[in-house]
Each structure stands twice: as structure tokens, then as C-alpha cells.
Write a structure and sequence with these properties.
The chain is α+β, with helices and mostly antiparallel strands and 201 residues long. It is 46% helix and 17% strand. It contains ten helices and eight strands.
Length: 201
């Protein structure tokens, strides 16, 4: 009966969390072998290394982000991934872009593929929004910070992507000029962004 109660607690936790990490079992004092048994019985689906969900849990478009957020809680979705999240680009990134503090190692995740950018101090900490999707907390940079980041990392993603994002943000009024200036200064790209911002005023 004890094994059954472990199984039920694990299934209840999976129901509650959406995505379950193997390490989550510590909190409910259930052995990890329960995950293997439940997966073999078809009661849980393995969606990545150490990541499980209920078969009835329909994955959303944010499932890849939820998987990364579960595995890398200190990661912040940035650049192309943040643009896509905020619906500000026609680009479909092949990788999930995350920002990590300087000195971090690239997280080892089988799926989805990750592209990591290192940021320091306030550039990493400022402008983070916490959004819940599929029962998982996603940390993503706000619209204005994302645009400034795109200009800062234009060598990686292309100036055309940064300009498209800036035009979208201003035409849809998704960020004020003051917010854009603030993050442009923070990311040290005010001089780069100034002519484009002024042209859109």
C-alpha cells in the first residue's frame, strides 16, 4: 500500500505543477523509482531528462519554455525568445535564448536547444517579469528591456531584428519612449538607438 500512496502523491504533484522534476520528489518523500514505474505504466510521460508530466496534460506553445524554466530557474528568457513571447517578431527562433549571470555555465539540457547570453549586475537583474504558464513560473525580460538587449546583441541576432522589434513596440504602444531610453542607457546602447528612436517619434 505504501508504494501506491507514493504513486498517488507523485501523480497529485504532477497535476498541481504541470511539469514535474525528479528533484521535486524530495519534498513529498517519494523515491525516484516511482517515476520509472509510473512512466512504464503509462501514467506519466517523460518529456526530457528528469522532467515528467501527466499524459492528459496538453502541452502549450510555451511548453519548451516551461521545460527550460523548470530546469534552469535562474535563467531569464531574452532576445529572440522574449520577442516571440511578447509577440513582437516574425522570427521563429530555433533555440531558446536565456540570459544568465556572468560566469555561468551553459545548462545541459537535451531539449529544447538553448542559446545562452551572459549578463552582469543590473543588466541581468533589471526588467524581469514573472509570468505563469502551464503551472510554471517563467522569467522573461519586459518589452523595453528586450528591445535594448536586441540592440546590444545586434551582432548575434542582426540589426534588422532589433529594428523590427523597435518599430513593433512603438506602433503597438507596448513601451513608452522613457522606458526604452532607460533600458538603452542601462544596456549602454543609447547612442546606437537614438537615431532610430528619434525617427519614430
Amino acid at each position: 500500500m505504501l508504494a501506491d500512496s507514493h504513486s498517488q502523491r507523485v501523480l497529485d504533484l504532477a497535476q498541481q505543477k504541470g511539469l514535474l522534476r525528479a528533484s521535486d520528489l524530495v519534498a513529498i518523500e517519494a523515491p525516484r523509482i516511482v517515476l520509472t514505474r509510473l512512466t512504464a505504466a503509462g501514467l506519466l510521460d517523460k518529456v526530457g531528462r528528469g522532467l515528467y508530466r501527466l499524459p492528459s496534460h496538453s502541452g502549450s506553445e510555451h511548453e519548451g519554455l516551461a521545460a527550460v524554466a523548470t530546469k534552469v530557474p535562474q535563467g531569464v528568457f531574452c532576445l529572440l525568445t522574449a520577442l516571440q513571447f511578447h509577440e513582437l517578431t516574425t522570427q521563429l527562433p530555433r533555440q531558446v535564448w536565456i540570459a544568465m549571470p556572468r560566469g555561468s555555465h551553459v545548462p545541459r539540457i537535451e531539449y529544447p536547444p538553448i542559446k545562452m547570453v551572459q549578463m552582469t549586475g543590473d543588466v541581468y537583474l533589471e526588467g524581469i517579469e514573472n509570468v505563469e504558464r502551464d503551472g510554471v513560473n517563467l522569467r522573461v525580460y519586459c518589452v523595453a528591456k528586450t528591445v535594448a538587449d536586441c540592440f546590444k546583441h545586434r551582432n548575434k541576432i542582426g540589426l534588422d531584428v532589433a529594428l523590427e522589434a523597435l518599430r513593433e513596440v512603438r506602433s503597438k504602444r507596448r513601451a513608452t519612449a522613457d522606458d526604452l531610453w532607460r533600458y538603452a542607457k542601462l544596456c549602454r546602447v543609447a547612442n546606437v538607438m537614438r537615431p532610430y528612436l528619434e525617427a519614430l517619434e
